[in-house]
Design a protein that fits this description.
mainly alpha, Amino acid/polyamine transporter I, globular
Length: 452
Amino acid sequence: MPDPQASLTEVFRSVPVTGATPWRRFLAFVGPGYLVSVGYMDPGNWATDLAGGSKYGYALLWVILAANLMAMLLQALCAKLGLVTGKDLAQACRDYYPKPIAIVLWFLCEIAIIACELAEVIGSAVALNLLFGIPLVWGVLITAADVLLLLGLMKFGFRKLEAVVITMVATIAGCFLLQIIKAQPNWGQVGHGLVTPGFPDQEALLISLGILGATVMPHNLYLHSSIVQSRAHDQTPEGLKQAVKWSTLDVIIALAAAFFVNAAILVVAAAVFYPKNMAVEELQQAHELLKPALGGAAATAFALALLCSGQSSTITGTLAGQIVMEGFLNIRVKPWVRRLVTRLIAIVPALILISATGGKKTVEMLTWSQVILSMQLSFATFPLVLFTNSREKMGEFANSRFWGTVALAVCIAIAGLNVYFLQGALPPLVFWGLTIGFAGFFAWAKWAYRKV
């Protein structure tokens, strides 16, 4: 019987780790990285990548590369935290921080999950509309129901769910490989965009923040630190070292696939739309414009990939919602109840937005949802890095001085970009009020709050 306090008890240590060769042992750890990777190619990413490519050509490719490298580092730290401490990130925050801070972190994470789920639900609904002509409102409702059915696969073993998600990831990659071949991008400009940092204007910074929020997603950090514990690895020090090594390799390979998909979306937009000065504001618009430019097969592949993207990322987003609620609040409810609540929380805003806008400006809606994710990111990354830097909590597995410094620099860079954007987007009084309010709250909770 699994520990009732373990993270995601229904799959905790449920996947055996066997194999006489290193290759077979590595295969036993393949899976969690791909469940995490789908969050890095969800419809929110599509929106920011389409906007970036259609408006600025290849100029923001470096943002996708930088965000992906940050994601690889942070997700590797998540895997290590979960395996070494036996806690997911939410449980660690609950156990190591004063209760008021844990509650605020939980609330901010729930906002991030709602923003993420909103993007995924809208993306899936748009894909169903493009493929089958289903109205967007009905598409939202269908998406809610089918994800709950897919999550029912966990009753037959976590590996079955992983296999479904990996199949969807492979489908997405295949669809974009076809579009890349048909788009025939300028590879010299692609290479230049990958290695030349810069923001052409303020809107490019907004889109870059959206790319960052869509790539390094707060809820993915909580998710990964939980699902790596599904492997029943040898619990000796050597067995733990092997588990950390293979889990890190798994997520690096999976996120390399996610980088290809994100870069491909931007490259296709830059090759097809940017030369014609077409700024893409709707996913439906991108689909329609691809038909004459690349042919019907490429347009259908776009819609199919969008459906797989929305469905797979909604699965992991719903799981993350369960992990966050259980971890932060120590509330144990039936998994199907938590998943239903998570679905409803996402569906209601999606229905309101679609009804209010008539399904227009989907790219703008999704871009802003990813900016909201970016704003929440620091509240997950700083605790993660501080925990994994701590020798008291991690023992010999604590980050080295070099990697600890790099990880902290990543956190500061993310926070700095968000502060810079907010300072320009908000009235000074609001910006400084929020800054002083948050600083005062965390100072009170850290040094003045006393448990009753």
